[in-house]
């Protein structure tokens, strides 16, 4: 192998690609290592058009023309392959006779420089976009932005400042803006802004600025320096925000707080406030007069320490629980007065949350007289309850005990009817009247006992009842009367098959209504009784009992429906107790009973087992 010359060795070590293209066919001659990265598999003696490597096709098309006309050409930042850019330079070289012998190809890898230039370009574009966006934001925001330099000269204000002050865009900003500041605020504003520039810090202060209509409005001025260490700040950028309404609201709030404090001190009741942690930070004047202690002596837990000793621990636990959960605090406790006398108080506290955070507001109301009155009323109520219970017991026992003499009388009259004879022609009528009177007396005693028993059953526990099964049991007990009158019973409970109620009370209600429907049936048609349960639109259970009997007078005061012993159809045997019991049971359990009726056509009882609440 022919040894390389020093010049050739130097060309191989150059940090740029060097290659020669010899003859008109432009065949590879010399190729150094850096050029090998560009031409790839091209070897000496091969045509560049056959083995171009990563040389751009446009560049290859130019090589024959350069060889022909002997010109030079340089291409900057040519993309050669997917990841590299080169500066390509081509110039012809000559033989000893001065003829063009080939082309010298130089390639310098500028991939990193091109990437940096591209990044710089993209960064410049991004900066322009951000600058435009920032300008749009500052000039459309509901505040005025400005820039001042270290000497205090105003170099920029946003259009909002001109609209607010009414000044023309040609105005000398540095000279005019101090004149628009309220005279009482001008020296303070100039001093504070100059101090901020002198110390290299920002500022934050409020002052009054004259609006275009001559009205001064409170403004909040904030500014921060533009910092480029180690140089001192030269520009301050800031914003003006109108806070006039906030100042007025704050002033109104201060006046309101003073008025409320005056009102609280005027109330003859213990009023206090506490922090979010439950520590009392205010007592009204009456509290200190009642307790005989100062605010410092009362301390942050004063009202707890004033309670009756045995009540302090329980009250403190409840107060801690309320503070932790935010739930209202309320309870009755004995509170010590300045003379050592304990009086009953109702202590209430509620939490209020606003922009300043949660706080507690509490009162201690003296209820000593109400407490004693309540004790007296409770004693009287207990006595009345005992008397009522004793009366119920007496009525129940009396009705039960009187039935035996009634049965004895009935037996005596039966024996008298068999063994004695009377010549009186009205004998049969008289005996019939006696039987009727005894039957009514027995029925009345039974109903009285049922009334007392039903009242006692109203306290029985409730359970989820299957309407279909309960109605079937009731109708089974009335089967003889149903068969006797040829009645048809239609049970429809599919819409509301279940009911949470007392079983005994449900049986009493339905039994009385169905037996009444059978008893007061129309003589000209067989009874038809419909039992239907369903839900109202608000989800409340309802039972409807409809018949085709004699009907009733609904709005006639002379014929009350639910009054004890009141009767409308006196030609039918009865005591007037059944509907009274139904109405009493339903109302005592929180429901109500509605009635619609047409004389001669029938009656419908609608039982609303539970009265809907006002919130539903």
From TrEMBL:
List the SUPFAM superfamilies. Answer: ATPase domain of HSP90 chaperone/DNA topoisomerase II/histidine kinase, Homodimeric domain of signal transducing histidine kinase, PYP-like sensor domain (PAS domain)
Pfam families per UniProt: HATPase_c, PAS_3
Which reactions fall under this protein's catalytic activity?
ATP + protein L-histidine = ADP + protein N-phospho-L-histidine
User: E.C. number, please?
Assistant: 2.7.13.3
Q: Which domain of life is it from?
A: Bacteria
Has UniProt tagged this entry with the keyword Ribonucleoprotein? no
Arranged from A to Z, the UniProt key words for this protein are: Kinase, Phosphoprotein, Transferase
Q: Where is the PAS domain?
A: 256-298
Q: What is this protein called?
A: histidine kinase
Record organism: Hymenobacter guriensis
């Amino acid at each position: 192998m022919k040894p390389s010359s020093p010049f050739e060795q130097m060309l191989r070590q150059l940090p740029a690609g060097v290659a020669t293209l010899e003859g008109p066919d432009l065949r590879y001659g010399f190729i150094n290592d850096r050029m090998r990265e560009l031409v790839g598999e091209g070897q000496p003696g091969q045509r560049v058009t056959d083995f171009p490597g990563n040389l751009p096709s446009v560049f290859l098309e130019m090589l024959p023309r350069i060889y022909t006309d002997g010109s030079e050409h340089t291409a900057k930042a040519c993309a050669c392959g997917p990841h590299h850019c080169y500066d390509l330079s081509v110039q012809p070289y000559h033989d000893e006779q001065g003829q063009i012998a080939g082309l010298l190809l130089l390639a310098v890898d500028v991939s990193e420089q091109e990437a940096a230039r591209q990044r710089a370009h993209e960064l410049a574009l991004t900066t322009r976009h951000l600058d435009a966006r920032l300008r749009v934001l500052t000039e459309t925001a509901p505040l005025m932005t400005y820039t001042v330099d270290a000497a205090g000269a105003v170099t920029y204000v946003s259009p909002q400042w001109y609209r607010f002050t009414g000044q023309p865009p040609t105005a000398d900003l540095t000279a005019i803006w101090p004149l628009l500041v309220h005279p009482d605020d001008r020296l303070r504003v100039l001093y504070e802004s100059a101090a901020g520039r002198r110390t290299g810090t920002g500022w934050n202060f409020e002052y009054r600025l004259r609006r275009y209509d001559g009205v001064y409005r409170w403004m909040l001025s904030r500014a921060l320096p533009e910092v480029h260490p180690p140089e001192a700040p030269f520009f301050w950028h800031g914003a003006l925000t109108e806070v006039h309404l906030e100042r007025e609201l704050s002033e109104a709030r201060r006046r309101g707080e003073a008025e409320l404090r005056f009102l609280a001190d005027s109330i003859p009741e213990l009023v206090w406030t506490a922090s979010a942690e439950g520590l009392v930070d205010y007592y009204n004047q009456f509290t200190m007069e009642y307790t005989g202690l100062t605010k410092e002596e009362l301390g942050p837990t004063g009202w707890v320490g004033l309670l009756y000793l045995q009540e302090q621990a329980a009250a403190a636990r409840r107060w801690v629980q309320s503070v932790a959960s935010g739930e209202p605090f309320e309870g009755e406790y004995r509170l010590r007065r300045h003379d050592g006398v304990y009086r009953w108080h109702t202590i209430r506290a509620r939490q209020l949350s606003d922009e300043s955070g949660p706080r507690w507001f509490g009162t201690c109301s003296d209820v000593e007289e109400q407490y004693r009155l309540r004790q007296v009323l409770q004693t009287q109520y207990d006595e009345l309850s005992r008397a009522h219970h004793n009366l119920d017991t007496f009525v129940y026992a009396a009705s039960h005990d009187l039935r035996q003499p009634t049965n004895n009388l009935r037996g005596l009259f039966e024996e008298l009817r068999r063994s004695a004879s009377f010549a009186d022609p009205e004998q049969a009528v008289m005996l019939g009247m006696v039987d009727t009177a005894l039957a009514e007396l027995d029925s009345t005693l039974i109903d009285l006992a049922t009334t007392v028993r039903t009242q006692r059953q109203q306290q029985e526990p409730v359970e989820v009842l299957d309407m279909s099964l309960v109605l079937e049991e009731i109708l089974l007990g009335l089967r003889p009367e149903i068969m006797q009158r040829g009645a048809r019973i239609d049970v429809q409970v599919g819409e509301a098959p279940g009911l949470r109620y007392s079983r005994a009370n449900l049986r009493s209600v339905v039994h009385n209504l169905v037996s009444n429907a059978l008893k007061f049936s129309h003589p000209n048609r067989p009874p038809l009784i419909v039992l239907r349960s369903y839900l109202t639109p608000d989800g409340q259970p309802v039972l409807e009992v409809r018949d085709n009997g004699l009907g009733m007078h609904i709005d006639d005061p002379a014929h009350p429906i639910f009054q004890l012993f009141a009767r409308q159809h006196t030609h039918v045997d009865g005591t007037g107790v059944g509907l009274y019991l139904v109405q009493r049971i339903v109302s005592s359990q929180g429901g109500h009973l509605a009635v619609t009726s047409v004389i001669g056509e029938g009656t419908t009882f609608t039982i609303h087992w539970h009265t809907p609440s006002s919130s539903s």
